[in-house]
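Duplicate of #3305? Posting structure anyway:
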């Protein structure tokens, strides 16, 4: 047993050394750095910006969609009615403002002038009656009470003349600036209310924010939607990158913009042009699913290596191997896309 113990220790040490050389990031011939990681993409949980029952879901899981494509629609009857009501209010306010800006019509002014003339005629008749009764009182052919009544009627008729003249003056002057300003403010408020109603109607439609693939249909027709409840999950097809980790000892040799190549076990005969797009400014311990137990306590820097995925063969979570050309010119990245 004692003779076997040294042999076991030697085998364990040899195995650990072999695993370290096999799984650690490797630098071949001093020019190429090999790293391992997984394909990653961005995803978004799409929600309606309104609360209503779902009317239609227009896409299926796995379907490719383009930016601004209509994906789903809520019931719109209530929102359309609010838009129609707001439009009617805007039209009413617009007509009211137009009336004030146009001022008085010629027919209205002529009518006011006729009313002034009629009031003057009535005032003259009342004044003449009062004067005649005054002469009759002296001859005792009319009572003092009749004279006083005629005097009151003459004063009232004169007041009517003044009122008609004031009305004509207002018509000639037109509406006040303050009234026009108030009407303009009312119209702006009605237009803002219409814009809000139209925006609420637009919020009943869910559109793709970018090109992507529908990953999950969370809501179905008849479900109640709200801004807090995702309706669809969209996986963006651009950009696609490999999330890997760069050891601290190699940090000075890798720069964003360096050219790289990505391969995967799923398509071993294919390689994908790539470039270093991002290196984390902060260090972290190596994730347990990336390196051997010996390397798990090493400090590493998360790195994103963006890939040209024109055929959409690289998928979320796929294991991938990254080879970085350490002699490549920084910024000399592939033409398929820019980070």
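Output from current build:
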């Amino acid at each position: 047993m004692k003779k076997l113990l040294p042999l076991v220790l030697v085998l364990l040490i040899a195995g650990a050394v072999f695993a370290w050389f096999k799984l650690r990031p490797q630098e071949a011939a001093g020019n190429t750095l090999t790293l391992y990681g997984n394909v990653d993409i961005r995803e978004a949980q799409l929600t309606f910006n309104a609360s209503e029952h779902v009317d239609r879901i227009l896409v299926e899981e796995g379907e490719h969609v383009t930016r601004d494509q209509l994906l789903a629609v809520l019931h719109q009857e209530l929102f359309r009615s609010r838009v129609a009501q707001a439009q009617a209010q805007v039209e009413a306010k617009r007509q009211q403002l137009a009336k004030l800006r146009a001022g008085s019509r010629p027919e209205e002014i002529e009518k006011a002038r006729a009313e002034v003339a009629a009031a003057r005629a009535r005032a003259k008749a009342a004044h003449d009656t009062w004067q005649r009764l005054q002469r009759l009182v002296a001859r005792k052919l009319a009572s003092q009470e009749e004279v006083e009544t005629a005097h009151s009627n003459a004063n009232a008729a004169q007041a009517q003349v003044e009122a008609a003249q004031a009305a004509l003056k207002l018509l000639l002057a037109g509406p006040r600036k303050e009234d026009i300003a108030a009407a303009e403010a009312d119209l702006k408020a009605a237009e803002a209310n219409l814009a809000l109603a139209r925006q609420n109607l637009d919020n009943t439609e869910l559109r793709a924010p970018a090109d992507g693939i529908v990953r999950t249909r969370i809501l179905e027709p008849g479900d109640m939607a709200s801004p807090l409840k995702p309706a669809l999950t969209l996986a963006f097809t651009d950009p696609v990158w490999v999330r890997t980790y760069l050891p601290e000892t190699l940090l000075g040799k890798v720069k964003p913009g360096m050219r790289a190549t990505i391969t995967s076990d799923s398509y071993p005969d294919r390689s994908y042009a790539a470039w270093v797009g991002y290196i984390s400014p902060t260090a972290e311990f190596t994730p347990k699913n990336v390196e051997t137990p010996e390397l798990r306590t090493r400090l590493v820097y998360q790195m994103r290596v963006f890939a040209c995925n024109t055929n959409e063969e690289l998928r979320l979570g796929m294991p991938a191997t990254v080879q970085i050309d350490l002699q490549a010119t920084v910024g000399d990245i592939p033409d398929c896309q820019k980070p």
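Confirmed duplicate; merging threads. The radius of gyration is 44 Å. The domain at 24-41+239-325 is CATH 2.40.30.170 (Elongation Factor Tu (Ef-tu); domain 3).
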